[in-house]
Design a protein that fits this description.
The chain is built from 2 helices and no strands. The chain has about 70 residues and is mainly α. The protein has a domain of about 40 residues. The mean pLDDT is about 80.
């Protein structure tokens, strides 16, 4: 018999996959906490605002480079 060394991470992933597939389907529907969903929504909105602000700043910098050269 040949023994192989399996990386720990790989073993954990396989173990998790086995456990998830052996669970009844009813337990796979997680409870969604409304407060957590609201926090996620707020974070999504903040991220969107920051991305827009970042794009505006980058566009302004690009315009400045054009006018300076």
């Amino acid at each position: 018999m040949v023994e192989q060394t399996v990386p720990k991470k790989k073993g954990r992933l396989v173990g998790l996959a086995r456990r998830a597939s052996s669970c009844p389907s009813s337990s796979q529907t997680p409870y969604t906490d409304p407060m957590i969903m609201e926090q996620l929504q707020n974070k999504d909105e903040r991220i969107e605002a920051l991305e827009t602000q970042n794009a505006t700043i980058l566009a302004e910098l690009a315009d400045q480079k054009k006018t300076n050269h």
